[in-house]
Structure formats: structure tokens, C-alpha cells
Amino acid sequence: MNTNERALIEQNRKRQSIKVMYFQRYLLIRYVTAMFFFTNLYWFISLIMSKSTLIIIPFMLICVIIMSTIEQIKIYNNPMLRAKYTRICFNILFASNIVLMSVSSFSQYFIQLYPFLINQNRSKLFILIVLMIGVVLSAFVLYRLYQIDNNQDRQFRRIQEYEKLVK
Q1: Contacts of the segment 18-24: beta carbons below 8 A, 24+ positions apart
Q2: d(CA 39, CA 41)
Q3: Given this model, what pLDDT does residue 1 score?
Q4: How high does pLDDT run on average in the chain?
Q5: With the C-alpha atoms ordered 37, 66, 33, 90, is the resulting torsion angle positive or negative?
Q6: How far apart are CA 96 and CA 135, in angstroms?
Q7: CA-closest candidate to residue 21, choices 99, 79, 97
Q8: Given this model, what pLDDT does residue 129 score?
Q9: Which of 23-27, 95-99, 122-126, 147-151 has the highest average model confidence (pLDDT)?
Q10: Higher-pLDDT residue of 148, 166
């Protein structure tokens, strides 16, 4: 292997490293997205099994999450892409968790929304805690997306330092 080939391989390796570093900015967001996906999938399946009429709620949330996931995959090939659908997804998840907190606590729809639980105060408290965690995670992801969009995250500073080193 001659020096030109080595230099080309090294240049490609550096370019690929930078691309991966930009993609890694969204790592936490991808994990939280997966958590929301599987939580809503479990909820969707339980509503199918109980033949609930409110099956549309987790189905729509799963569809929104899938759009966000597709966008996050596209970010790998275009690291400068803004995560518009991911932001919309987490705004919807944030709002739906708040609405579900009030509906599941103060209405007769609790059994239709959560047929796998008994209509007791402990069950309602459990669901409230799960939904509050969802609100906090959604808010955190929205804040993280704000940081990434404005290049205020730590990973962006690391990328800049790395780019200075390799040039």
C-alpha cells in the first residue's frame, strides 16, 4: 500500500469518525424513543387483547414515534439535518402524557385505557407516576433537541475539538 492510498484511507476514517460523532449527539434521544415505542406497543397490545375502543391512542403514538425513528436514521447520512419530526413527536408525547394524566385520574375511562390494571387508587397512582416520568423524559428530550439545534451540547464542542485536531 503506497502513501497516497494510506492517506486516502486515513482521510476516510477521519470523515467517518466525524459523521459518527454527529450521529452520537442523538444517542440518548434514540434510547428514550425506543422506550416510548415499546411502552406504547405493550399498551397497544393490551388494548387489542381487551378489545378496548381506545386502541387508537397508542396506535397514533406508535405512528408518530416511527416517523421520529425514520428521521433519526436519516440523520446518520445527513448530520446537519434538523430533527423536526423528532421534536414534533416529543411535543405530542409530552402533551398526550399530560392529557392522559388528567383523564386517567379523574374520569371513568381508566379501565378502558388500562384494562390490565384494577380500578384502584394504587393503580391510578402507578399510572400517574409512569405518565409523570413520560412528561419529564419528553421535556428533557425537547431540551436536548434545543441544545443540539443551537450547538450548545457538549458533544458538539468535542466534535469541534476533534475537527481542529485532524485538520
Answers
A1: 18/79, 18/159, 18/162, 18/163, 18/166, 19/76, 19/79, 21/155, 21/158, 21/159, 21/162, 22/75, 22/79, 22/80, 22/159, 23/75, 23/76, 23/79, 24/155
A2: 5
A3: 67
A4: 90
A5: negative
A6: 9
A7: 79
A8: 94
A9: 95-99
A10: 148
Q: 53 burial class (0-12, 13-18, 19+ CB within 10 angstroms)?
A: exposed
For 35-44, how does the pLDDT look when each residue is reduced to its tens digit (9 = 90+)? 999 999 999 9
Q: Is the pLDDT of residue 86 over 90?
A: yes
In the block, residue with C-alpha cell 386517567: 104
- Residue appearing with cell numbers 399510572: 127
